[in-house]
Amino acid sequence: MTSRAAIPEPVPRTRRWRARALVAAAAIAVAAVVLAGTWWLARESAYAGLRTQSANDLRLYIANVRRELEKFEYLPSLLADDSRLQRLLREPADALAWRSVNRYLQLAANVSNAAAIYLLDDDGLTVAASNFDDADSFIGDNYSFRPYYQQAAKGRLGRFYALGITSNRRGYYFASPVGRGDEILGVVVVKVPLAPLERERGGSGREFIVTDPAGVIFLSTEPSWRFKTLHPLTAPQRRRIESTQRYPGRSPSPLQRESTTALADGGTLVDLGDGGSFLRQERGMPTAGWRVHVMADTAPVYEQIVRSVLLAAASLFAIALAAGVFAQRRARLAERRRFEQASMEAAAANAERVRAIIDNTRAGLVTLTADGRIASLNPTAETLLGRSSDSVSGDPLTGLFDGGDRRTLEQGLRMAAETATPPLLEVSAHHGDGSDLPLEVAVSAMDLPEGRRYLVTLHDLSERKAGERALREAHDQLEQRVSERTRDLLTTNRRLSREIEEHQRTEAALTRTRDELVQAAKLAAIGQLAAGINHEINQPLTAIRAYADNARLLLDHDREDDARGNLSLISDLTGRMARIVNQLKLFSRKSTGTPVAVSVPAAVDDALALLDPQLSREGVAVFRHWDAAPLYCLGDTVRLEQVFVNLIGNAAQAMSEAERREVHVTLHADGDWIEVRVRDTGPGIDDEHLAQIFETFFTTKDTGQGLGLGLSISARIIEEMGGTMHADNDPEGGAVFTVTLPRTTEDANGE
Fold first, then answer.
1. DSSP structural state of residue 438
2. N or C: which end of the chain has fewer CB within 10 A?
3. pLDDT band at residue 4, thresholds of 50, 70 and 90?
4. What is the pTM for the complete model shown?
């Protein structure tokens, strides 16, 4: 008789409960450790990602700020080289120069989009400004206390940022010294508007702030943070801000915050209470003296931590569930003989739970037989494919695909049978409604007791493919726009080239016209001198005739020594006539156009020699006031003589009705400049004519005595030589014309 195997006795209930309690306590402890570790890793990962993104945004914002400032950095130095600004600083009372400089600065500000451009003299007083016609013009204001003025006054490029004293608008200031060499006449200042920089955004949840060395926020994409400080200001910092008047009318106060925490890997957590929590990172801009900060909202960090912890908890729950199922099954197997029916029921319930999990998963699952035929579809797979599990059961899975997609899936099944790593495939399946459905397919081989099976996981790629199509379309549109912009730029470049060539032709025509006017003016002057020169030549000719007749008589009487004396006198007279004609020939020749070192005293002497017959005929006495020191300027001898002929000739004509007719010519050097003053003793120039005296075709002479070109041409000649000319009335009576020329050496040339 065969004995039956003994059924093991059940474990006492008390011991079972004690063992379960220990297992539960251990599981809870492990879960707590795993969740805590997950929280820490998720927090570090989220902050690392936020730091990286914020750092990239910060670098991009700083690059944009640098680009905006560098657009204006060259402008003050370029304006400082303009001779009009230097002339106004030397002669601030010149109304014409003042109006010209104001209009020029206004045009420069409009073209460059600068907030304001203004010119300061050597005392820091504003003498000209682009907003000269505004009610709150800077003209007359003194900015010597501003650091940018003090830096530029020392010959450096000045930089500063502050609220405007007059406009109360924020700006960044560039300042450059105005002058020649080591001589600084004043400072030109360009104010850059800062408001456009506040429109730069790093993206959603990003705010940018810019602070000065004291920690005052003067730029912020969040308006409520402006003119706050990151920390309380010290007394020296407040005094320094007040002395430079950086923020007039404002008293910066600390930004209200609940707490500040420095992170080990970089950055600072700033809690602003109701204002939110931010991760702050900063970088310096040494050239501007700024620190730029990015404030990144930390709300996404906490959202990512919560998601990670919830996912870990769900995983732990699934593991615990699987462990419980495993333990339960093991317990059922141990007591199978005693509790076989209960074990079968528990197994059935467990299968139902597993099936429910499979049916409710968001991924489509397809089980295949060893030959690739469909065994079952979960509900998600039925929804994706638009077919019920019963309608396709037993059909090959490859029948849902065409052409290359079918071959790809067949290859995936072969690879799944050969490797444990399931391949990922992108294919397009036939949906039940006839449309094509893009899918991501993963194939895994399973060796079950009933034989080889395949598990195919399906994910819908419709949304991703739509996003890729949208991205391609956007890229194509961008390429098209770039191509159109390139064509527009090429068209504009060709048009600008044509305009530049036309401008060059116009300049050449203007140069030829100006030279012709100068030559015409010289010929007109020669015509005016013709009468005096005719007298100078007629006298020697008469004397030569008399001496020749007398010499013939002396030879007839064999008085050869006396005849030789007459011939010597004839030779001297012909030399005098040659010198007069040579002066006319030199004066009438055209300029070479090449600048050389010109002796100013020699040019004055040549002009006086040419005018000597006219001056003698009109009873004009000329007084020279200069020493023997050599005075040279870089220019053209012919044109410079033309200037002095015009000035001295005009002085002689102005004294036609005067009792005392004197012309005083004074030369003296002042550092790098030569000053020539031509003063007469005539009636002077009416005050209303002083402002128009150098205008083309303006003349106070009677009709037929002048065209009004002499002084206009003379002024242009002096300006081309780098000098200035102005007219005034002398306190002792008469008019005085002052010519200022840059001094050079005798061996200088125009290269």
1. E
2. N
3. very low
4. 0.37
C-alpha–C-alpha distance, residues 122 and 120, integer Å: 7
Confidence grade of residue 202 (pLDDT, cut at 50, 70, 90): very low
Residue 456 near residue 365 (C-beta atoms within 8 A): yes
**What is the rounded CA–CA span in Å between residue 211 and residue 689?**
56
Residue listed under structure tokens 């199509």: 469
Contacts of 137 (CB under 8 A, 6+ apart): 129, 131, 166
- Sequence-distant (≥ 6) Cβ neighbours of residue 10 within 8 angstroms: 335, 338
Residue of 457, 396, 400, 447 lying closest to 423 (CA atoms): 457
- Token pair belonging to 560: 């050869």
Q: Indicate the DSSP class of residue 207.
A: E
Q: Are 655 and 661 in contact (CB under 8 A)?
A: yes
Would you say 33 and 270 are in contact if contact means Cβ atoms under 8 Å apart?
Answer: no
- The tokens describing 505, both together, are 């032709």
Using an 8 Å Cβ cutoff, are 217 and 114 in contact? no
Please report the pLDDT score of residue 575 as a whole number: 66
Q: For residue 425, which of 435, 411, 436 has the smallest C-alpha distance? A: 411
SS (H, E, C) 155-188: CCCEEEEEECCCCCCEEEEEEEEEEECCEEEEEE
Q: Which amino acid is at 89?
A: L
* C-alpha to C-alpha distance for 622 and 100, rounded to whole angstroms: 36
At 543, the pLDDT band (50, 70, 90 cuts) reads low
Give 179's pLDDT tier (boundaries 50, 70, 90): confident
Is there a contact between 249 and 260 (Cβ–Cβ < 8 Å)? no
pLDDT of residue 314: 84
Q: ∠ CA(739), CA(745), CA(749), 5° rounding?
A: 95
Q: What is residue 567's three-state secondary structure?
A: helix
- Which two three-digit tokens encode residue 102? 């104001």
Q: pLDDT digits over 508-538, tens only?
A: 776 666 666 555 555 555 555 554 455 556 6
Lowest mean pLDDT among 78-92, 198-212, 386-400: 198-212
- The distance from CA 742 to its chain's CA centroid, rounded to whole angstroms, is 36
Distance CA 35, CA 308 (A): 9
What burial letters (b/e) apply to 143-152, b meaning 16+ CB within 10 Å?
beebbbbbbb
669: nearest Cα among 641, 631, 625: 631
DSSP label of 264: T
Q: Are 170 and 161 in contact (CB under 8 A)?
A: yes
Instruction: Report pLDDT digits (tens) over 341-398.
Output: 666 666 566 657 766 776 667 677 888 887 778 878 888 877 877 887 787 788 887 7
Q: What does the pLDDT look like over 431-446, one tens digit per residue?
A: 777 777 788 787 877 7
With both helix axes pointing from N to C terminus, report the angle between 95-112 and 83-90 in degrees, rounded to the nearest 10. 140
Closest CA to 327 of 33, 9, 24: 24
Burial class (CB in 10 A: 0-12, 13-18, 19+), 274: exposed
Task: Pull the structure tokens for residue 341.
Answer: 């029916």
- The mean of the pLDDT values for the chain is 78
Joined tokens for residue 69: 């400032």
208: confidence class by pLDDT, cuts 50, 70, 90: confident
Query: For the chain, percent helix, then strand, then coil, each to nearest 5?
Result: 50, 20, 25
Q: Which two tokens stand for residue 746?
A: 């005798």
pLDDT at res. 645: 87
* Residues facing 679 on adjacent strands: 664, 736
Decide the pairing of beta strands 632-635 and 662-670: unpaired
Are 645 and 584 a contacting pair, CB within 8 Å?
no
Question: Cα(642)–Cα(636) distance, rounded to whole angstroms?
Answer: 10
- Give the integer Cα–Cα distance in Å for 611 and 327: 129
Q: Encode pLDDT of 679-719 as tens digits.
A: 999 888 888 888 778 776 666 665 445 555 678 888 888 99
Q: Using CA atoms, how far apart are residues 381 and 362, in angstroms rounded to an integer?
A: 9
C-alpha angle 516-522-527 in degrees, rounded to nearest 5: 125
